[in-house]
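From the shared-data thread, chain only:
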Amino acid sequence: MKFASLLTAAAAALCLTTPAFAGDGNADAPENVVYHVNDSANASAAIQNINNHLNASPKAKIVVVTHGKGIDFLLEGAQDANGNPYDARVQALKAKGVEFDVCNNNLKGRKIDPKTVLPEATIVPSGVAELSKLQAKAGYVYVKP
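Structure, as tokens:
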């Protein structure tokens, strides 16, 4: 009986500590989302997800953070499995306000010239650190396509 009361109290406490932005119904609340791409094999799916997201929520602030093999679709000349270039799709999303971050640690580790990164992307010191910063300090919601 004490255990049930303790559980009820704990559940009530969790409800009281839920952040206001987590479903408070405020349509004007900012929707900040970070998409995590660590494998360019998922880049086309991520791009489609982001387009769908923006169609449903045009004011969403979206940042795509890449590291590992995920940076590859943001390099000059990158193409998907069907030979379609990524640059035009990245440009279209950038025009809608989407930000693209590329991990400098991966550029250095893989000896990739930073000049080959698409101009729509920003090089950040560390992709994983950027993910953590956006989630912990800036309140971004995490999405992994």
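Residues 3-23 have pLDDT under 50 and may be disordered.
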